[in-house]
Specification:
With 67 residues, the protein is of the alpha+beta class. The protein is built from 2 helices and 4 strands; from the N terminus they run βαββαβ. It has helices at 14-23, 47-51, and strands at residues 5-9, 29-32, 37-40, 56-61. A hairpin with a 4-residue loop joins strand 2 and strand 3. The protein is globular. The two termini are 21 Å apart. It comes from Pedobacter sp. KACC 23697. This is DAHP synthase ferredoxin-like domain-containing protein.
Length: 67
């Protein structure tokens, strides 16, 4: 199973951030507009590179949570 990253995005920047990710050759992304998050499979990219995108608030690896 591939590691996924969760990218928290400013309210008005979802489309702009998604466009920047696509320019970085990240095509496998899922926009969760209602919670302001984009989920990606990063490939060879670094979290620091994603954090540099204007409109990105935070980037973290997806984790399993059990209760």
């Amino acid at each position: 199973m591939s590691t996924k990253w969760l990218i928290s995005v400013k309210d008005d920047a979802m489309d702009a951030v998604a466009a920047q990710l696509k320019q970085m050759k990240i095509d496998n992304l899922e926009k969760l507009d209602s919670i302001g998050v984009i989920v990606i499979v990063p490939g060879n990219h670094k979290i620091a590179d994603i954090k540099k995108i204007d409109g990105v608030l935070n980037v973290e690896e997806e984790r399993d949570v059990s209760i």
